[in-house]
């Protein structure tokens, strides 16, 4: 339902005025002295003073490295990412540009080994059986209550799938495996159809719904379902496939996967856990950064006259850091990482594709702008925040640019990340259920005062 259908404009204005009192109550009564974090040695963001994550779990699924050990000392290094022990770079090289690889990566992450020809064929078969959403679900859930933010629409649809599951509460590994594969298979349809529903019901554009085709890779099916004419080139589908591979998994500590661990550890169902992780990924400091990067560049282009003028670019970036430009959050999106120091290996690969696509599509000038900002931003952030850790571009820096060159609309940038990360979340949920099986419950120190209860009449 639209907002104005729920409440008249006058009523909502009055409610906003009434709420002002409570906003003051909230902001006036909450403040924790930042010095207390130091005094009690609280690991803000579960990170120590050097930025290293607090050790909270064990995993065999992936390894994320931003440092190397030299004579026992941690030295910043080019980033490396391993899925089940295999370097992602090697996985991509091993495809030789001939095969689609995302399905193999799903298999690797969940079952711990690369599939042979027979295993992959069986896997494709099962995923093909699971991908259909069903007309009833599309009509009754996807098309109803459309949302401009497709991540929220996806959460709603995922939670609704609970009702369509005959055995939703069973958290045995066998049942969670079945639910996870179904979600991996269905998320592309959920995302793309939610986008079409939004375009139709909110923007008055023509609605078209195309079924996925059995036997096609997940990347191909996304483009097939998305495009009005269902056409795509092999190069486009292969680039999307690589992007899916690169986003599939990133250790247990990234915000959305840690969410999976936390929520799973309470013993809740797969749909609740997945919806929570999608909610986390949506955040602009995490997967939502890919959309922010695009909007940030649109804002930059509106404010910087000469894209080649470094002084002008520096001036704009300084304004961002001073919270005077763009969204006033003080963040240069697509830059920085909790683990990586000199480089994010996924960004290095995506940048290569961004360059090749940009040259092909006559967008070299735009690519050069990204490249120039990348070259300037890290140093500016380090100076501005007075940090000594190197700040590099992350996976989100070029991904939106690549997607836009593939004709993928902005609304689907972060949903594509969610589609890609679903196998990673699933592998970690299964690992948590099978191996950890203990509720996650860290401590918070109380730093308020204990005061006497005041009877209602005396307040
Ligand atoms: C898939 C992914 O999730 S990749 C990350 C996508 N997110 C973004 O691109 C958003 C922009 N980047 C950031 O906000 C951060 O770099 C994060 C969230 C990715 C990592 O944050 P942290 O682990 O806190 O980074 P780190 O410890 O190196 O940061 C040190 C300081 O530099 C600041 N900083 C780091 N990156 C940036 C940035 N891009 N712009 C401005 N300031 C930054 C941090 O806010 C932090 O300041 P604080 O100590 O006052 O909180
Ligand atoms: O590891 C992190 O903190 C964020 C990240 O890059 C990811 O989840 O892909």
TrEMBL record:
Keywords recorded for this protein, A-Z: Transferase
**Tagged with keyword Cell cycle:** no
Q: In terms of domain of life, where is this protein from? A: Bacteria
Q: Which InterPro entries match?
A: Citrate_synth-like_lrg_a-sub, Citrate_synth-like_sm_a-sub, Citrate_synthase, Citrate_synthase_bac-typ, Citrate_synthase_sf
Q: In which pathway does it act?
A: Carbohydrate metabolism; tricarboxylic acid cycle
The reaction(s) catalysed by this protein are: oxaloacetate + acetyl-CoA + H2O = citrate + CoA + H(+)
Q: Which organism is it from?
A: Blautia difficilis
Q: Which SUPFAM superfamilies match?
A: Citrate synthase
Q: Which Pfam families match?
A: Citrate_synt
**Listed CDD domains:** citrate_synt_like_1_2
Q: In its keyword annotation, does this UniProt entry include Transferase?
A: yes
Similarity comment text for this entry:
Belongs to the citrate synthase family.
Q: Report what the protein is called.
A: Citrate synthase
């Amino acid at each position: 339902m639209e907002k104005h259908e729920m409440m008249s404009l006058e009523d909502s204005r009055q409610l906003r005025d009434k709420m002002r009192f409570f906003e003051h109550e909230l902001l006036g009564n909450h403040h924790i002295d930042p010095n207390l974090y130091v005094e009690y040695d609280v690991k803000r963001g579960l990170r120590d003073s050097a930025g290293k994550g607090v050790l909270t779990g064990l995993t065999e699924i992936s390894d994320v490295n931003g440092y190397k050990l030299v004579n026992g000392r941690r030295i910043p290094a080019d980033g490396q990412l391993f899925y089940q022990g295999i370097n992602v770079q090697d996985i991509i090289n091993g495809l030789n540009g001939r095969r689609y690889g995302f399905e193999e990566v799903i298999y690797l992450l969940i079952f711990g080994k690369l599939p042979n020809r027979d295993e992959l064929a069986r896997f494709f078969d099962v995923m093909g059986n699971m991908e259909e959403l069903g007309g009833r679900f599309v009509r009754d859930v996807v098309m109803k209550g459309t949302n401009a933010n497709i991540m929220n629409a996806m959460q709603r649809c995922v939670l609704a799938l609970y009702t369509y599951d005959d055995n939703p509460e069973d958290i045995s590994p066998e049942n969670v495996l079945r639910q996870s594969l179904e979600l991996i298979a269905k998320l592309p349809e959920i995302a793309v159809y939610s986008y079409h529903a939004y375009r139709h019901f909110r923007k008055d554009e023509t609605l078209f719904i195309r079924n996925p085709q059995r036997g096609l890779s997940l990347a191909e099916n996304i483009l097939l379902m998305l495009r009005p004419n269902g056409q795509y080139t092999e190069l486009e589908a292969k680039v999307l496939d690589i992007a899916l591979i690169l986003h599939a998994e990133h250790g247990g500590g990234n915000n959305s996967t840690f969410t999976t661990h936390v929520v799973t550890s309470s013993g809740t169902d797969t749909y609740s856990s997945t919806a929570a992780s999608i909610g986390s990924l949506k955040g602009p400091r995490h997967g939502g950064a890919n959309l922010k990067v695009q909007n940030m560049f649109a804002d930059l282009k509106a404010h910087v006259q000469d894209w080649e003028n470094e002084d002008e670019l520096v001036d704009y970036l300084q304004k961002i850091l001073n919270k005077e430009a763009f969204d006033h959050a003080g963040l240069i999106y697509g830059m920085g990482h909790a683990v990586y120091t000199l480089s994010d290996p996924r960004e290095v690969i995506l940048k290569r594709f961004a360059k090749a696509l940009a040259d092909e599509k006559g967008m070299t000038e735009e690519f050069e702008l990204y490249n120039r900002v990348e070259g300037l931003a890290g140093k500016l952030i380090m100076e501005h925040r007075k940090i000594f850790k190197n700040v590099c571009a992350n996976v989100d820096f070029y991904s939106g640019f690549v997607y836009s060159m593939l004709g993928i609309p902005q609304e689907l940038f972060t949903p594509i990340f969610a589609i890609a990360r679903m196998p990673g979340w699933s592998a970690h949920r299964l690992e948590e259920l099978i191996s950890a099986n203990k509720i996650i419950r860290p401590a918070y120190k109380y730093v308020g005062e204990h005061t006497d209860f005041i009877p209602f009449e005396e307040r």
